[in-house]
Specification:
The structure is a homotetramer.
Chain A (H helix, E strand, L loop, with lengths): L14 H14 L12 H8 L3 H13 L3 E4 L3 E4 L4 H25 L4 H19 L1
Antiparallel strand pairs in A: 1-2
Helix pairs in contact in A: 1-3, 2-3
Chain A binds a DNA duplex (15 and 15 nucleotides) through helix 3.
Chain lengths: ~130, ~130, ~130, ~130
Amino acid sequence: MRIPIQINENSAEPLYHQIESQLRALIISGVITEGTLLPSIREFAGDLNCSVITVRRVYQDLEGEGMLRTRQGTGTFVSHVGDDAREEYKRDAVMKALEAAVDLARSVHSSKEELNVLYQEIVERKYKQQE
Amino acid sequence: MRIPIQINENSAEPLYHQIESQLRALIISGVITEGTLLPSIREFAGDLNCSVITVRRVYQDLEGEGMLRTRQGTGTFVSHVGDDAREEYKRDAVMKALEAAVDLARSVHSSKEELNVLYQEIVERKYKQQE
Amino acid sequence: MRIPIQINENSAEPLYHQIESQLRALIISGVITEGTLLPSIREFAGDLNCSVITVRRVYQDLEGEGMLRTRQGTGTFVSHVGDDAREEYKRDAVMKALEAAVDLARSVHSSKEELNVLYQEIVERKYKQQE
Amino acid sequence: MRIPIQINENSAEPLYHQIESQLRALIISGVITEGTLLPSIREFAGDLNCSVITVRRVYQDLEGEGMLRTRQGTGTFVSHVGDDAREEYKRDAVMKALEAAVDLARSVHSSKEELNVLYQEIVERKYKQQE
DNA sequence: GTGGTCTAGACCACC
DNA sequence: GTGGTCTAGACCACG
């Protein structure tokens, strides 16, 4: 299976972090389903053009979060994510990002009305791309 | 003058970055006005309980952005921020944060409606605290 | 004959190790008696839903310990376990596990009294289930 | 500060795991107190005669468990461990080890009385060493 | 000085 | 073939 992950070479965000957050999103959103066997660390490292250590770290971190399950000699699998946990996870992640944005707006004394206008603009633009 | 900056010791965010973003917001929003003489590096470091190196870096970075002006032997002053620049700056910073939140929502396949509900909740809560 | 072995897919413990320790306990405790013909490697692998390589390793390891005997073209049999050997084996295995637990308790500065209370609780609970 | 950790070169237990469990025990038991600055990864690696990567991993794992807090450029500190959490943690770790021992005893059909005798022997012996 | 990331490569255990 | 551990060493970011 081909995992759709995009790496931004120029970003300041660490490689392993880019991969983790994208893979996490794929699992949480249900694009990659429970029980799926992920590529081996060596194969994935080849796909992503990075070192096996980096992929290893990604798998290990997500295993720590309970999203992956690995068995030596066999491979790395996607764990079961309960619907409740899935919804909570999604809600939580998005909430944190929104809170950060609103906090920033308040810290520069941006009014609620200005913020609402900006928000509407962005949502319309981003969700339009998708359709 | 006492600069109201809060440092979060436990955050993974680097010290200098926490200070910079808060000081920047204070200047952009007009809480600290043009021409204000900021504390000396040593004094500020004492206030914030951090090293002088960290404060120097903050002053240097913001000077590079044109927000501060340093006069040898005198101190560090807040530069003029044009109303246009101020508005552009505010808008830009908030927009980036909002875009990140919306991108995240889309990456976990959260619908526009779910996102709107969350957004309303957070804005009401955050702006209520302030009043 | 159906060998009662439970595999825990999620455990970090290697497959072959889970099977070995359970099969060993069954033989030592006398649940599987001397001379019993064990399932063929392929049959057992099918029962346990694991690879034949894993079962072969189990049989080889236990043969190395003198618990099993393989006759080409016939199959794998349970060897004789002397009563003395049986008792020594049981005592030794349980002792090691208890020592590990006591060592851990001491390493976190748990008192002898606290440990005794915990021990009593657990023994009562576990042996009650069995009756 | 000198951290008292013993490494067993011959053990099958991974290096990082030996260090982690001992350091964890030192923190949980209160031998190393809140706020303590641990040795730098390079210094500790020298003390333990292992690579910096191994120490790095230990610090990172324990940070993930909430026991350590690290700040780039400053060092790695012991976090606050609430008394409740501490007791729960101790109790939990010891309980798991005891349960494993009792389970093993039951799996080889060892009687409650035999187990009690063994337990008393071991506790007396181990706690005597300590006094 | 500190920790954070990433690399290449070795060797082992497991299936 | 798979993952698991450990190594040496480089370079960057932070204080």
